[in-house]
Amino acid sequence: MEVGQMQRQWVDYTKSLFLEGLLDGQFLQLQQLQDESNPDFVVEVVSLFFDDSEKLLNDITRALEQPSVDFKKIGAHVHQFKGSSSSVGAQRVKNGCIPFRNFCEEQNIEGCIRCLQQLKQEYYLVKNKLETLFAMEQQIVAAGGSIPMLELSF
Amino acid sequence: MEVMKSLSDVADSKQQQEQQQQQQHFHVLAVDDSVIDRKLLERLLKGSSYKVTCVDSGDEALKYLGLIDHDDQKPTDSSSLTSPYPQQSSSEQEGSKVINLIMTDYCMPGMSGYDLLKRVKGSSWKDIPVVVMSSENVPSRINMCLEEGAEEFLLKPLQISDLKKLQPYLLKTLDQPSSSIDSSNNLVVEEIGDDDHDGQSKINEEINKGSVMNNTNASSISKRKAVTTETSDRIPKMKGLVVA
To answer: How many domains does one find in chain A?
Structure first.
């Protein structure tokens, strides 16, 4: 595949992530912060997000398994997750945190468990998609091309 | 007439040059418990040629400012103190430690941004502008911070367009009147979009060099700043390039 074709594929794939609501404008902000002096900025931030998220999901899972559930602690984790997902533009993950926090406040364990399931789904989905996107970027760069800049508005 | 005009032009451009040079030494202390937000903030600020120090808690911030043991310390002799950080007796600079702006997250485990704000405003660093950031738009919280002396309250996630809101506070620390700011030309700040609600252009693409910055405001979030204290910050959209 030649570079132009790869780039077009990348553009289409990226657009689909926005159209499906997986990513929002904040992700574009990250892309705009990537330049020659910070060529891997997006991957770096998203990698931090992945690491942070795995830990948060583990902590939340364990907390829900305790005989006496600490809803306050879980709420704090969810708040953190909401913040980090918002900062990288992972829109559906961010949105999944909102009902979760409400259930924490209500101390509704069933609701929390359901939300955690949902959150895990959304997280692994966006993780998967972003990893695919980054792989495409690597291919473009390896072929001597550069990653396109998108201008999108909704 | 002509001579007068060109002399003042020269004076202006010299002032602009000076401002630019000084901006490159602006030092921001950023406080946030989220590693992702610290990274984002650091990149945003460095993109405007500011020097950034990131800490992950209010306690670390106080340590950095030399406030950990005493609130209003005005030391004559620091030899009795065990803190490894030098004490400051002047608000803005002493020796090598200059801080022009403090940016802090509101919600942090342990000491909150509000608590940190109070400590700073009650210390020898009280003249340093403090900006509080939060992911939540809670009017009572915002008012509380502003009343306690915060210069600005910004909503997270921070964006490139938020940086221009910081300029007036930074330039104030140079003892320059803010009316001399001509932000479209002087400052090394990337202008990508604005709080522009006049409608967006249709989707278009650019398959081009990665380093070209496009003018875009894709995230049509309605309010970047929770409290609008002045309408003069609605600066018209400008194009700009980051000098990295």
So the answer is: 1
Q: Which residues of B touch A137 (CB under 8 A)?
A: none
The pLDDT of residue B22: 54
Residue range(s) defining the domain that contains residue B29? 25-68+97-169
Burial of residue B86 (number of CB atoms within 10 Å: 0-12, 13-18, 19+)? middle
Q: Which of B219, B220, B242 to mutate to test the interface with A (most CBs of A within 10 A)?
A: B219
| CB-based contact A100:A85 (threshold 8 Å) | no
- Does A150 reside within a domain? no
Q: In the 8-state DSSP scheme, what is residue B204?
A: E
Residue in the structure block whose two tokens are 């959150």: A119
Q: What CATH number is associated with residue A79?
A: 1.20.120.160
Please give the pLDDT value at position B94.
44
ipTM for the whole complex: 0.94
CA distance A110 to chain B (A): 26
In terms of Cβ atoms closer than 10 Å to its own Cβ (0-12, 13-18, 19+), residue B165 is middle
pLDDT tens string B22-53: 555 789 999 999 999 999 999 999 988 889 99
Displacement of CA A32 from its chain's centroid (Å): 17
Q: Is residue B57 part of a domain?
A: yes
In this structure, is residue B144 part of a structural domain? yes
> How many structural domains comprise chain B?
1
- Partners of residue B204 in chain A, C-beta under 8 Å: 151
Q: What CATH number should be reported for the domain holding residue B134?
A: 3.40.50.2300
Instruction: Tell me if B218 and A4 make a contact (CB, 8 A cut-off).
Output: no
Mind listing the pLDDT tens digit for each residue in B91-147? 444 445 789 999 999 999 999 999 999 999 999 999 999 999 999 999 999 999 999
Give pLDDT tens digits for A93-133: 999 999 999 999 999 999 999 999 999 999 999 999 999 99
Task: Please give the C-alpha separations between residue B77 and each of A89, B73, B86, B205, in angstroms, as whole numbers.
Answer: 50, 11, 11, 62
Q: Residue A149 domain-assigned?
A: no
Does residue A153 lie within any of the structural domains?
Answer: no
Q: Is residue A101 part of a domain?
A: yes
Indicate yes or no: CB of A48 within 8 angstroms of CB of B157.
no
Domain extent for A59: 3-142
- Cα A140 to Cα B244: distance, rounded to the nearest angstrom: 24
